[in-house]
Amino acid sequence: MRIRLALALALLALASGLPAGAADPPHGMFTPSEIKWGDAPPMVPKGAKLAVLYGDPNKDGLFVIRAKLPANYRIAAHSHPTDEVVTVLSGTLFVGMGDKLDLAKA
């Protein structure tokens, strides 16, 4: 029953589209071989790989990226000027809030 409810909610979310005012909504499907991975920008510790699926992260507007992070990877405390959605496809992600990295509070 829970699986059916989760699937129904996911389909409803997909059918509803993006929030009002979102221009040029993204759409597309990618097979693993179609995704172009590259090194993360120099401000991120070495080891991360990124793929831009939609938009341009260096410009205003909607963009979609995927990240591959090695085990026990740490990113220094930072903030983002825009909203963000994070989906963990595999593994565990610990996220903290605040001005400095505090693993005890992640």
Share of β-strand residues: 5-15%
Q: Determine the fraction of residues in helical runs and give it as a percent range.
A: 10-25%
Average residue pLDDT: 76
Query: Uncertain runs with pLDDT below 50, 5 residues or more?
Result: 1-22
Order of helices and strands: HEEE
Adjacency order of strands in the biggest sheet: 1-2-3
Give me the secondary-structure topology.
Elements: H1 2-16, E1 38-39, E2 49-54, E3 64-68
Antiparallel strand pairs: 1-2, 2-3
Description:
The protein has 106 residues and is an alpha+beta fold. Helices cover 14% and strands 12% of the residues. Strands 1-2-3 form a three-stranded antiparallel β-sheet, with no helix packed on it. The protein starts with a helix and ends in a 38-residue tail after the last strand. Mean pLDDT is 76; it is low at 1-22.
